[in-house]
Amino acid sequence: MSPEPTIPSMNITVLGAGAWGTALAIALAQRHNVLLWGRNPDTMAAAAAQRENAAYLPGFALPETLSLSADFSEALAHVTTAAGATTAAPATQSEALLIVASSVSGLRELAQQLQAFPIPNIVWLCKGFEENTRLLPHQIVRQVLGDAIPAAALSGPSFAQEVARGLPCALSVASVHAGLCEQVVAAVHGGNIRVYSTDDLVGVEVGGAVKNILAIATGVADGLGLGLNARAALITRGLAEITRLGIALGGRSETFMGLSGVGDLILTCTGDLSRNRRVGLGLAQGKPLASIVTELGHVAEGVRCAAAVRALAQECGVDMPISNAVAGVLFDGDSLQSVMELLLSRNPREESA
Ligand SMILES: NC(=O)c1ccc[n+]([C@@H]2O[C@H](COP(=O)([O-])OP(=O)(O)OC[C@H]3O[C@@H](n4cnc5c(N)ncnc54)[C@H](O)[C@@H]3O)[C@@H](O)[C@H]2O)c1
Ligand SMILES: O=P(O)(O)OC[C@H](O)CO
């Protein structure tokens, strides 16, 4: 077997020091010059002093080689070759990668802040539709930054805690810029992380968004003790919902059978590390949504996304009974009993319909 080629080290900035941004920064810092930026100066100062992001990813040591900052200009200087850069800027733009690791709700604001900088590229990790506009992340980025900057989504089944522990995982990078896909693969693929490429941005993003809603549904079913048969049915019929909406929005059917589709759906619906699944488990215990969300302390994207997906499905004429049932429970006060009865009483149909 021939040895893996040596990958030149890149300057990488990760914007957003939540659980996932921190975990990916830890993994990438093994091979690259990584700077992790967070907007809260106190949190970042504490993380730098303790070499641990106790607020978002407790229990994981931050490598000494990982730089931490709450200074946005410093974070951007790390990946731009602009005149006047004060930190060790990359020699060329292709030696730099800018990763945005905020929630979907923070993506627009961060992209707006980036308008003032000559960024080399942009890769985002968030999964969902923007609440009010119902836009996918790539549409938000395009609206704010235009389409001249190479842009990509990095998605797929990946619990932050497992990546931070160095456990194996496989991701999908999606972009219409083949060169950026290659660059993300060069930066992230290796060691225990595999990265596959696709140009189906819509498919990858719809899979990542809707699986969060289905994880809430599966959490409810498991919390109510409905059994493993019900869980498998929800996952499988959930995949049919993802596929229908994804195709209606322009995605390709094969993408939903991949890592960002069925892969992430299985992980999030079955893994107790999922915040979205835990929202469902909490609802099944009769806890109010607000207290579940406060207890989590992290974003559960499926909650905000459920309203957007319900509206989009209606607009596109796509049948999404499970996602609609979740929205009914979250926003209309529907009882778990009533939505279960509704789902079970639907007319029989062709499985492929
Ligand atoms: N946690 C995971 O295992 C995981 C894995 C893959 C993908 N994701 C996705 O990545 C995204 C982030 O998840 P997370 O787990 O890191 O969430 P988190 O709640 O742990 O952290 C979110 C971070 O975004 C930051 N943020 C939000 N709005 C911002 C803004 N306007 N400006 C700057 N920063 C802002 C917050 O300060 C916080 O640091 C979500 O869309 C999630 O679905 C998470
Ligand atoms: O914890 P969740 O439910 O936000 O899921 C995290 C990741 O998206 C899993 O791939």
TrEMBL record:
Q: What class of enzyme is it?
A: oxidoreductase
For sn-glycerol 3-phosphate, which residues are the binding ones? K127, G156, S158, K211, D264, S274, R275, N276
- Domain (Glycerol-3-phosphate dehydrogenase NAD-dependent C-terminal) ranges: 200-340
Q: Which UniProt keywords apply?
A: Cytoplasm, Lipid biosynthesis, Lipid metabolism, NAD, NADP, Nucleotide-binding, Oxidoreductase, Phospholipid biosynthesis, Phospholipid metabolism
> Which positions does UniProt annotate for NADPH binding?
W20, R39, Y56, K127, A160, R275, V299, E301
A cellular component term from Gene Ontology for this protein is: cytosol
Residues where substrate binds: K127, R275, N276
Which terms in the Gene Ontology molecular function aspect does this entry carry? glycerol-3-phosphate dehydrogenase (NAD+) activity; glycerol-3-phosphate dehydrogenase (NADP+) activity; NAD binding
- Glycerol-3-phosphate dehydrogenase NAD-dependent N-terminal domain: residues covered: 11-177
Q: Which residues form the active site?
A: K211 (proton acceptor)
What subcellular locations does the record give?
A: Cytoplasm
Quote the EC number: 1.1.1.94
Task: Give one GO biological process term.
Answer: carbohydrate metabolic process
Pathway terms, separated by semicolons: Membrane lipid metabolism; glycerophospholipid metabolism
Q: Which residues bind NAD(+)?
A: G16, A17, G18, A19, W20, G21, A160, R275
Recorded catalytic reaction(s): these are: sn-glycerol 3-phosphate + NAD(+) = dihydroxyacetone phosphate + NADH + H(+); sn-glycerol 3-phosphate + NADP(+) = dihydroxyacetone phosphate + NADPH + H(+)
Q: Which family does it belong to?
A: Belongs to the NAD-dependent glycerol-3-phosphate dehydrogenase family.
Cross-referenced HAMAP family = NAD_Glyc3P_dehydrog
What is the recorded function of this protein according to its Swiss-Prot or TrEMBL entry? Catalyzes the reduction of the glycolytic intermediate dihydroxyacetone phosphate (DHAP) to sn-glycerol 3-phosphate (G3P), the key precursor for phospholipid synthesis.
Question: What is this protein identified as?
Answer: Glycerol-3-phosphate dehydrogenase [NAD(P)+]
